[in-house]
Structure of HSP90 family protein:
Amino acid sequence: MTLPDTASHQSGADRTFQVDLRGLVDLLSHHLYSSPRVYLRELMQNAVDALTARHALEPAAPAGSFGIRLYADRSVVRVEDDGVGLTEEDVHTFLATIGRSSKRADGIAEQRGDFIGQFGIGLLSCFLVADEIHVVSRSARTPGAPAVEWRGRGDGSYTVRALPASARPAPGTTVTLTPRADAGEWTAPARVQALAHHFGSLLRHPVTFDDGSGGPAVPVNPEPAPWARTYPTPGARSRALAAYGEEVFGFTPLDTVELNLPAVGLRGIACVLPEAVPAGRRHGHRVHVKGMLLSEQAEEILPDWAFFVRCVVDAESLRPTASRESLYEDDTLAAVRDALAEQLRAWIARAAASDPELLHRFLQAHHLSVKSLAVHDDEILRMLLPWLPFETTDGHCTLDEFSRTHRTVLVTSSVEEFRQVAAIASAAGLGVVNGGYTYDRELVHRLPEIRPEVSVADLDPATLTAHLDPVDRETELAAAAYLAQARDALAVFDCDVALRAFQPASAPALLVDSREARHERTRSRLAREQEGGLWGDILGALQQEAPRAQLILNQLNPLVRTAVAIDEPELARTSAEALYGQAALLSRRPLRPAESSLINRSFLDLLAHALRKDS
Ligand SMILES: Nc1ncnc2c1ncn2[C@@H]1O[C@H](COP(=O)(O)OP(=O)(O)OP(=O)(O)O)[C@@H](O)[C@H]1O
């Protein structure tokens, strides 16, 4: 037995972390990944990296000369490659050293970008489905070296032994797993085949699968990526890309946008969603690196605003994180994100400039999200604002259509103001947009930035009343008594009554009552009620001139003409109340309790009057 080295006990001496191997293996295999199925992805990815290294070693070898063979019967899962292989020394250094990877070893740092793996832990994911990993390998770098066998176990122990060269005549590596009883779900032949297709359908090396039933092995990736194929016509190409998007995402894309960034060897498609997505919901994109599917939930390759697409891309040099569930946020990723965003913008610009039908369908599905985007993104605003739909006095139409007939665009600040004035404003030839929905008013006000010939103004009640024709003095005088009675009846609502002539003649009355005016009246009523108290003082100090609601009676309307001539005071009062109630109902704003009871009362009074007259 050796005595402890006293020097190492001196204070300040360097020591090394101790590692609980079982705990570390458990952590890296069981807790890093979201599903056990990733074991196959990690094995296939190691095989791809080994093929990349072999091609670097033998650059003259034609593409496709080295491949990957998968095998799964009920008792084993095997992944075999014709890659660069390992010597016994490599096995100790890389395979059996957690956290060490040949893919970032000295001397090949400049090749780092060539490989998918880099962390030196991926192989441990095999412990998700098996207790032992069995590897047989032969090095292509050192052809004279014997084949080597390695067995690694979940408790962190391993054995290595050299095998005769005949045990594996050609270079490459075979990894064999004997699945645990509880891992059947992930290792059954059909499942392995499906996973191989899922992860490897875009791989550029030949990959086959054999289920041990004696039949021929089937190709996993028989065709190149859909964007890498050639098609007889552009139409056939876009149909094939759309069909691929549908197969991958399960929806028929509204359109497919081809993505191409030669600088990082990235190609792929963005599928435009056919339906609106709830604001704030982000979609994951499918990211392949060197053909290998690494992540289905990568959000980082597109900016937040690109909520309307889902992408599949295959890149040469994006760096995944250790779990592969997301991408490493570096300068390359930032540049890729900007460049892809540019390509989506170009698609929008193209649709806006030359494909109105596509643009229309796109905006029909996504106009709400596009509006929220345009508020903050000047370029989107510039491209799309004229094409966004709004509710207007000409019906639902785009600002482009609307501003062709209305050089001055008026916009209300609430839905209810729009309801109040729409019919009258349009009869007066005014063009009004409903600015009551989120973002709409703000967006309409920015129209002159793009269409300088158009002016935009808020439509306040004063603007509208200025467009209503006053009646002549004689008519005004004849109606004076009725108007006084009406004002008296409606005083409880702080409502003034006026007589004007306006179209459409079928509208008996217009209630001009902005939300601000109502708030102001509520505030002054509270101030009066609280007079003398603390709140009364505060509310009183805020007092502005309380804007009054205005009931504007239409002198062109036959009913109003009859009403102003009524000489029965009770009936005059009831008719004024009924006109107010009807105008309030038309505005579709919530009624106050006093208004509901007024409508009720006036209706019953009028009914009683009518019945009395008939009897
Ligand atoms: N099929 C293979 N052929 C040759 N070498 C392999 C093979 N599989 C694994 N290795 C060697 O074992 C090392 C460790 O593999 P492991 O999958 O744990 O990590 P990695 O691929 O380097 O990185 P990552 O953790 O990012 O996947 C690799 O760096 C490589 O040197």
Remarks:
- Residues 331-354 form the longest helix (24 residues).
- The chain has 20 helices and 22 strands.
- Residues 42, 46-47, 50, 81, 83-86, 94-95, 101-103, 117-123, 173 surround adenosine-5'-triphosphate (CB under 6 Å).
